[in-house]
Amino acid sequence: PKEIFLKDYKAPNYAFEKVDLKFVLGEEKTLVTSSIHVIPKSSGDTPLILDGERLKLVTLKINGSPVPEDNYKVSARKLHLTSLPSSPFDLDIVTEIEPQNNTSLEGLYKSTGNFCTQCEAEGFRKITYFQDRPDVMSKFTTRIEADKTLYPVLLSNGNLIDEGDLADGKHYAVWEDPWTKPCYLFALVAGQLVSRDDSFTTMSGRKVALRIWTPPSDVPKTAHAMKSLQLAMKWDEEVFGLEYDLDLFNVVAVPDFNMGAMENKSLNIFNSRLVLASPETATDADYAAIEGVIGHEYFHNWTGNRVTCRDWFQLSLKEGLTVFRDQEFSSDMGSRGVKRIADVGRLRTAQFSQDAGPMAHPVRPHSYIKMDNFYTVTVYEKGAEVVRMYQTLLGKAGFRKGMDLYFQRHDGQAVTCEEFLAAMFDANDVKFPTFPLWYAQAGTPTLTVTTDYNADAQTFTIKCNQYVPSTPGQPKKEPMLLPLAVGLLDSHGQDMRLTSVKDGSSLHNLTSAEGDFTTTAVLHVDKAEQEFTFIDIAEKPVPSLLRNFSAPVRLVSDVTNNDLFFLLAHDSDQFNRWEAGQTLSRKLMLDLVSAQQKGEKLSVDSAFIEGIRSTIMDTSLDKEFVAKCLTLPGESEIADLMDVADPDAIHTIRRYVITQIAANIREELLKTVEANRSSAAYDPSHEHRARRSLKNVSLGYLASLNEPEIIDMAVDEFKNATNMTDQIAALAAICQNPGDARSKALADFYEQWKEETLVINKWLALQAMSDIPGNVENVRGLLEHPAFDIRNPNKVYSLIGGFCASAVNFHAKDGSGYKFLADVVLQLDKLNPQVASRMVSAFSRWRRFDEERQALSKAQLERITSMNGLSDNVFEIASKSLA
Ligand code: DPP
Ligand code: ZN
């Protein structure tokens, strides 16, 4: 397989000004006619190289005449055209494809009988020959012809300009998109769908029709998605002044979809799980995910579609920015602090671990074999942190100025991350020379902070040391700009006024001209070693460092456990209040893991238990925040902090700490469950979501005690639940303990929900993630269950992805988990390389484990890479993991 490099980028030699597509959709074959108006951009006889995969070329014409055989060459992945006219010409290509046999779910494929498309990143080349790259932007029209009974609804991008009946029970529709776009934003849907219709009136008074399409029985489940869409449209106008630019916006829900959703111009296509929700079938987390992703795809209309990427290395230009925008949207719709905690939690578990492993890559990668493999937590979530840092450095108003300039300069263009950075800094007339390194250097910086209070001078000094670890291909790193947000708490737990800070020899005033003082200072850490001194600090403060997680770094500090308990009780920064508790938990768990490994007696520090008790009893706190504080760091987060990860010891210790907490605050937990039961009618408001989350976390703790009366209580909660949030939480609580109650609850749940695919996926995931010893055999059994289908990505993510998330079983000492995953990956790779490649990623951290486990997983990785006919997708991940 061929590796592609950012440094080799060359602008295309031919522009495609206008593209007229015609699809004749059929059961056996589909005929695609593409008529392209081509504009040569360079002089001389440069070949035009088109991408195309699994296509049957039927005819090829230039300016109406067949292209002579000597002037073109077809290979497995390209169509080379030579001896081309030097002035603009029309290229007509007819290809034949078989969407019904397309199991890769990219290009044009069928899902439950309907036709649909997924073209990002490089799926359009499975539809027709094209310059399949984002810097080729064209105006598209799309004519669709299909059987009218089987496919009554025909959709594509833009506006419907014509429709009508044809002979033989067929009909047609013609769609015209007035905006230029790259082919990755092309979409087509044809099938038996009905829509929920609503509208949105934009800030300039235009009425936009909104339609969410699903199979008829699912229409009632689209109300939340519709409301989320309207909120997102309003939010983008209010916060960024961005208005929708067509009179119609369609969303289609599809059950078979590799990713979450896709922002195709005016025809978003979504994985069903991110559209469909009812209180009975979807959890509060599902509701929140739908709101976030509906927002995300809508926001792409400006950040992604109106301004797109020059090449795929720039993916974070649109994804980092759009994730940041959806995070801000969700924060404004719900609880900002809790949202930040959830986002950082995900960054820290998934992205930090990627950044420390063989797949580590910069936010803007330097090379790839298969672009699909770079839709990663680094490009998305770390990319969003980079965007957030601009806002932290420039302020909200400064960030908005940068966004305005970005659109002013680049609307209608395909650009790079440099252009975004330039717009941000030019609009604010600043320069931060080391900031661009965030795009180029992989690896999570470690920021080490030591502090010193000088009572005589009344100064508080913060000494910083930053270190960016080496990563594959990048042995040496430079220091980069880390915005470090700092607050200082006085002995009453109040924020101190910060008036000025010295950075080396320069003194910065932190008071504004109006005399407003600040309680959080943003320090610009951009050297390997650096000192900052706060002036006029009247007493020894407790520092609150990296407030709101102001930079994506690993923070190591000399803050004591006593300081952490103080911050947990008092910090005005909600994120850092939570973080203080997490830091204490991580220290405790790491100490216990080491005690366990040495065979020492285990015990949990009573101050820790008291900290938890006072948090759960503090009625002034948001209950969702309390639920977050009660949740211990995950097993993989602890594993990442060890020199040699010991999944068995970590698992034992996490269970041990949970049961110790439960036994010690049993009464408080019981009271919390009592006090926070839901009313019969589901209330989606923040207050009620928060009550449910606290009740369910408490129930989970109690069930860990495995006492008969508590299990009875959990079974009652399960039976009486009126919504999925409570029902699945009760089921999960029961499932912690093997036995009759568990088997019965699982069987009852299946009976109740077997017709609801999305609910049954939760049932699969719950069993797959179980820590019951030897669970691999249950999971192998579930592969044969009628509820499972290896062709459906959601089911694979639930069952196989779920299994890999259970460290004790995936990393079972006998290697059974590794063998299971390799078996599935090899089977899956023949059907759907993108999904297979996501699954094989679970192997990538194999070097983190002991020698026996390393040998076992390495053998499975080698078994995979030695397979003939392996996809580029799986090859890239597996071979880089072995490198
Ligand atoms: N561009 C898509 C997204 O919204 C990829 N599935 O992230
Ligand atoms: Zn996106």
UniProtKB/TrEMBL annotation:
Its cofactor is Zn(2+). Residues 562-883 form the Peptidase M1 alanyl aminopeptidase C-terminal domain. InterPro entries: Aminopeptidase_N-like_N (IPR045357), Aminopeptidase_N-like_N_sf (IPR042097), PepN_Ig-like_sf (IPR038438), Peptidase_M1 (IPR001930), Peptidase_M1_dom (IPR014782), Peptidase_M1_pepN (IPR012779), Peptidase_M1_pepN_C (IPR024601), Peptidase_M1_pepN_C_sf (IPR037144). Pfam families: DUF3458 (PF11940), DUF3458_C (PF17432), Peptidase_M1 (PF01433), Peptidase_M1_N (PF17900). Its EC number is 3.4.11.14. This is Puromycin-sensitive aminopeptidase. The lineage of its organism: Eukaryota, Viridiplantae, Streptophyta, Embryophyta, Bryophyta. PANTHER family: PUROMYCIN-SENSITIVE AMINOPEPTIDASE. Residues 225-429 form the Peptidase M1 membrane alanine aminopeptidase domain. Residues 443-556 form the Peptidase M1 alanyl aminopeptidase Ig-like fold domain. Gene3D superfamilies: 2.60.40.1840, 3.30.2010.30, Neutral Protease Domain 2, Peptidase M1, alanyl aminopeptidase, C-terminal domain, tricorn interacting facor f3 domain. NCBIfam families: pepN_proteo. It comes from Ceratodon purpureus. Residues 21-185 form the Aminopeptidase N-like N-terminal domain. Transmembrane segments: none annotated. Belongs to the peptidase M1 family. It catalyses: Release of an N-terminal amino acid, preferentially alanine, from a wide range of peptides, amides and arylamides. Keywords: Aminopeptidase, Hydrolase, Metal-binding, Metalloprotease, Protease, Zinc. One of its GO terms (molecular function) is alanyl aminopeptidase activity. GO terms for biological process: proteolysis. GO terms for cellular component: chloroplast.
